[in-house]
Amino acid sequence: MGFFKDLFSDNNHINEKSVIGFASFLIMTIFAVADIVTGYFGKELVITDFIFNSFLIMTLGSFGIASVDKYINAKKETNTESNQLTQNSNYSEDDVIN
Hints:
This protein has one domain. The chain has helices spanning about 1-5, 15-40, 50-90, 95. It has four helices and no strands. By secondary structure, the protein is an all-alpha fold.
């Protein structure tokens, strides 16, 4: 229960986009396994292309957005750390260059 409480909290370390992407991927995987099992037994599992493509787009979109978000945040942290080091330094930029 703590996971869901943290998931909907404003101050959390859980990436909600990755959770949605993983849930969507899990549903796609369950559909694929069910299709293979029913095909093995000679029955056809009818999955509408629209539904499968919706889960596919949701999975790729969630993981793609989460990756871009992670890259941008890492770049901001690097810039913030370098700015803090420059501000905390006793040297001016001219002293560092020379």
